[in-house]
């Protein structure tokens, strides 16, 4: 809602009418940042749900909250100059990788239980809980 509100505000500021795409650089930056965030959220939601269901809910929720703050930083950085959005983008990629690896660990644990009867769920939860605070390091 914040991103859409910014696009609408910038559109009205540039033209005074409703939503119309024009060539102003500030509107293009806001519109592009909104589109980039919109395209990234389906992937984020998929890995967030998989990590939470298959591995551990607390580290997945923490990583999800961090991702939302990082996307906000990316959006605001994109409004200034495109180079200011790079740290938010890279930080977001790292969080998505963490969530993806949590999902893979959960799937591997399921197959280990199914085929061999070995359950490493406690170890995986301990490792992900220990690693998740490292996401705070920029």
List keywords for this structure.
single chain; 138 residues; Four Helix Bundle (Hemerythrin (Met), subunit A); endoplasmic reticulum; mainly alpha; 80% helix; 5_LipOase_AP; leukotriene-C4 synthase activity
Question: Could you characterize what this model shows?
Answer:
- The protein is an all-alpha fold and 138 residues long.
- The chain has one domain: Up-down Bundle (Four Helix Bundle (Hemerythrin (Met), subunit A)).
- 80% of the residues lie in helices and 0% in strands.
- It is built from five helices and no strands.
- Helix 2 runs antiparallel to helix 3.
- The longest helix has 31 residues.
- The two termini are 26 Å apart.
- It is found in: Endoplasmic reticulum membrane; Nucleus membrane.
- Homotrimer. Interacts with LTC4S and ALOX5.
- One of its GO terms (cellular component) is nuclear membrane.
- One of its GO terms (molecular function) is glutathione peroxidase activity.
Our count of helices gives: 5
* Counted beta strands: 0
> Can you give the mean pLDDT?
83
Taking the sheet with the most strands, its summary is: none
Domain tally: 1
Give the % helix.
over 70%
What's the overall geometry? elongated
Give me the secondary-structure topology.
Blueprint: H1 2-15, H2 25-54, H3 57-80, H4 86-116, H5 121-131
Helix pairs in contact: 1-2, 2-3, 2-4, 3-4
